[in-house]
Fold this sequence. Notes:
By secondary structure, the chain is of the alpha/beta class. A seven-stranded mixed β-sheet has the order 6-15-14-13-11-7-8, with helices on both faces. Strands 2-1-3-4-5 form a five-stranded parallel β-sheet. It has a four-stranded antiparallel β-sheet with strand order 16-20-22-21. Helix 16 packs parallel to helix 27 (624-661), helix 17 (393-405) crosses helix 26 and helix 19 (452-464) packs parallel to helix 20 (488-498).
Amino acid sequence: MEKNKSHNKLSTLKRTKLDHYHSPTKFRFDTWYALEESTQRLRDKYRRGDNTAKELEATRQGLETLSIIEEYTAFPSQDDCQYLKTLFDGEDYSLLAQTVSYIVRALSSELYRTRTIDLGNTKELNSLDAMNEASRRNDDNVNNRHYFEVLIVDDGSEEDTASLRDSLRQVRRPEDNFIYDVVIVPSLEDALIAVMFNYNIQACVIRYGFPLHSKNHLELLQQYLTNIDDSSYEDTPEKERGPLLADLIRTLRPELDLYLVTNTAVEDLASRVSRRFRRIFYRQKDHLELHLNILRGIQDRYQTPFFTALREYSRQPTGVFHAMPISRGKSITKSHWIQDMLHFYGMNIFLAETSTTSGGLDSLLQPHGPIKKAQELAARAFGAKWTFFVTNGTSTSNKIVVQALVRPDDIVLIDRDCHKSHHYGMVLSGARVSYLDSYPLHDYSMYGAVPIREMKERLLQYREAGLLDKVRMLLLTNCTFDGVVYNVERIMEECLAIKPDLIFLWDEAWFAFAGCVPTYRKRTAMATAARLLKKYRTDEYRAEYEAFTERTKDMSDEELLHERLMPDPDKVRIRVYATQSTHKSLTSLRQGSMIHVYDQDFKHKVRPSFTEAFMTHTSTSPNYQILASLDVGRRQVELEGFEMVQHQLELAMALRERVAKNPLISKYFRFLVAKDLIPAEYRQSGIESYYSVETGWANSSMEQAWDQDDFVIDPTRLTLYLGKTGIDGDTFKNEYLMDKYGIQINKTSRNTVLFMTNIGTTRSSVAFLLEVLVQIATELDRDAEDASQAERLINQRRIKSLSEDLPPLPDFSRFSPQFLRGKDATTPDGKIRDAYFLAAEPDQSEYFLLDDGSIEAEMAKGRDLVSATFVIPYPPGFPILVPGQVISKEILDFMRALDVKEIHGYQVELGLQVLTEEVLAIQAKKQ
């Protein structure tokens, strides 16, 4: 779009290499730190009478850059930036340096959140002790109140905006539960930049008319507008710009409270746009009413119904006569032997222990009070129609959803390398399982994800066989353990085009945090479901669909595989479920999980069976502490999830950059990038890496990839390649990271280890990891220097084994005919439940050792050896055999090449458990 560049404040600045910054927030703080350094050098040189030209230019550039950045923050304000310029222009370099240092410390310590800072108060600038004392003061009772910022979009004069800011400050009351400051921007684009850049913003007040375009052309901030289609607002009438801006902000940060102040007929406007705003005001003059509504909106998100109820319960004096001796800590306080447990945990956790049958709190099985309200708030936070809390992990959440939706003999399409709970769920439900193979990454002994072509081919195969009505569900993992993220919208659209009532279960166990930021959110199940439902109801989509059907009406199935398919808007039903391990990527105690539902047919088709499945798998004595942590975790998502996930991303990006740029670390280690983990055919954007030492950050390409590519890589998953070290993943995890340095990780492959940043990761943690990698690399260097010729040869062989001689990953072979639809079956779905329970009888299975040649001897006779159990090596953690599957040569080769210590379902002393020929013959006769 063509922008007004008449007031480009950067025109006099030396070009900054912003492409070496991924995060505008990091750029902001780095610029403040650089300004602190330059002002101190300027002060010292000026005092000595030295040449200050270099320092003057650096300080001028820093001040001008920061004056642009701080347009979007409450502290430092524009007035503060102007004050710094006044000191600079007046050559008061001593006070300038002192004031800049004060600002830097106020930002790093977040002092501005606890009190109002007056830079003109020189007493506070005289010593660091003054700042520490200031942080302890209770200024207007601010210290005990949570701080946030309110964005106001108003193109008024400086006098008008200053008056508005002062008016809102004046209506503060001592009894207010929260404290806020104000950020005022003049245009639609400035508002969008502000809500993305400033994570303190929790509410937005949109006033009257305002221009569309920003006069700010700082490239790093302009990147926030990259994914905003300017054609959608270029010709918007002035009176419609408020609702338009609300829609755009809701796309970026749906958790924000929005308020509209208008001078048009409020009655007419309210009937059209009221759902976008918490409140609409007509020519707002009474700022107290606005102030109270802003605080009420924050209070609504701050509330935690169940956690609050549990705290209140813990404070009540009660007599305990129910079945929990530990309740109120009685069995511990009376003990002579276990009071160390009380000392370790503290008293509150025991005061909050109770029985659901004792009254006073809510029941997870039939919620009607605070748990019900907490789940409703969670549904709002995660964009679901319904949300359910689960206290025994996403393994149980997965089984609940499968049991609720799948009937015996229903066909379920499922990625074969998904979590084992899904496979066991198939056993419980009696489904016919149609396994989908992910693309293999042989070089790293891991799988990627299932290509869309594989899903379409399978659905078209069932349509050709006349069995499409039996296909019930598509079950996929998003994102995968290794960070491969699906294009959820494309998959759902194209699959619904073939089967319009297909149910989707997205396992988002490791992706609960994704709804907090817009780039990730677009690839989540709930956001996509809502987007598609809205899309299919538009006249524009209907016209596109009619053109599509006309163009493709005579196409063969093979030709349709190359088309972007579109579902029939008159037939399509949006039926989407997501299971999330809240405890894995958000704040919750271990085993805290949520089930999110966006199903048009849930109320009248699923609710009864879902309730029964929930009852089946949920304990009648759920852990109240887990429930309370889920409630509090939801509050955090709505009030600071955006900030914390952005920080998580920044640390992950910094870690990638530091490893790539460090010559010693990069000699032995590197993080795998997009081109390593996603074949080129699935990267339509052409992106190869988010960062390279030569070109810096590929910010625009990264956004493009997340918009259109079949698969993208979650930057917070950092897969470290070990091929050059000669150390396998399991050894590196245990003997190096854990035993030597106390670093814990979840996953390894034969030649990789996976690090993950999360919302709890700190800069200190990242620095420690970098330090450890340097120490390990130094040790490897030293060992290489001291090695004998024989030792070098051994190490070379290890390196070759890890980087070249890797066993190919086996695809799913096939089900034995006894578990298919018959000998002449044309579809690959099998019933693993039947095979699973056949193996329960000892005389119906036998064992073959892996390395004595007996398996090959049986295969040479033409016998199909059929697995009786799940066989799951850790790593990689997916089943390479399931009950009823025929054992192939490729699977045997893979198992023999594995060097892991843990293989579930396989006992080295016994061998592979297979079904006997006799029981298979009996099974064949029953078909």
